[in-house]
Structures are given as C-alpha cells and as structure tokens.
Amino acid sequence: MVVFTVSTPDIEHVRSTCVSSQKPLRISLFPAKQKRKFILLCMIMHEIEPNRMYTEKEINEVIKPIYHDYVTIRRALVDYRFIDRKADGSSYWLIANPMNYLAYQ
User: Fold this and answer.
1) pTM score
2) How many other C-beta atoms lie within 10 A of the C-beta of residue 27?
3) In a 3-state reduction of DSSP, which class is residue 20?
4) What is the pLDDT of residue 2?
5) Pairing between strand 53-55 and 91-94?
6) CA-CA distance, 33 to 37, in Å (whole number)?
7) Peptide linkage before 24 cis (omega within 30 of 0)
8) Contact between residue 65 and residue 24 where contact means Cβ atoms under 8 Å apart
9) Tens of pLDDT along the chain (105 residues)?
10) pLDDT at position 33, please?
11) How far apart are CA 102 and CA 14, in angstroms?
12) How many CA atoms lie within 13 A of 23 on its CB side?
C-alpha cells in the first residue's frame, strides 16, 4: 500500500492544473503522478453516494460528466480501493468513507 502525505499546496496545484470546474466537478487532465491521481480520485469519490449499489451504467453516468475517459477513472477508483465491484462488473459501491479523505470543497 502506498501512503501519501498531501499538503494544501499539493491540493491547490491539482486544482489549478487538472480541475476546470469544482462545482460541478470537471477534470481537464488526469495526471500520471500517483499523488496527483490520488487527490483527484478523492475529489471524485465525494460525488458517489455512500450506501448505494450502482450498476456499471450508473457509475459511468456519475463519472462521465467529470472526465471524458470515464473507464480510466472507474478503474482507478477500484485500484485505489475507493470503490469495489462484483467480479463480473455488474455492481459497484463506495467502500471508502469520503469523510476520511481530502475535504476539498
């Protein structure tokens, strides 16, 4: 498991370079650096309702307006253990509590 130390300047850098709109959340660039990805995924995680099961289509509909490559975002959310899914990909749900992560708003 990778652990990141995230500072306010880190968040501000991601906001200024990768986020085109905060409300509604829109991402213009999904970075290669792990810490920056983590920060963006934390932001996206706040857009997913806790205690709700999503179909693949429904989770895609949450992510699509945020970033055009929604498949990459969905995969990263699973890889970083913010969301989980059934083995067949038919259901997705939030497993990380957004309140335990970056409060960016």
Assistant:
1) 0.87
2) 20
3) strand
4) 63
5) antiparallel
6) 6
7) yes
8) yes
9) 566 788 889 999 999 999 999 999 999 999 999 999 999 999 999 999 989 999 999 999 999 999 999 999 999 999 999 999 999 989 999 997 766 666 554
10) 94
11) 12
12) 2
Structure tokens given for 18:
């990768």
Question: Which structure tokens are listed for 2?
Answer: 């990778």
Which residues on neighbouring strands pair with residue 77, listed in sequence order? none
Q: How many CB atoms lie within 10 A of CB 85?
A: 17
State the Cα–Cα distance between residues 73 and 95, nearest whole angstrom.
16
The vertex-82 CA angle with 60 and 21, nearest 5°, equals 60
Q: Please report the pLDDT score of residue 105 as a whole number.
A: 45
Provide the token pair at 53: 């099961």
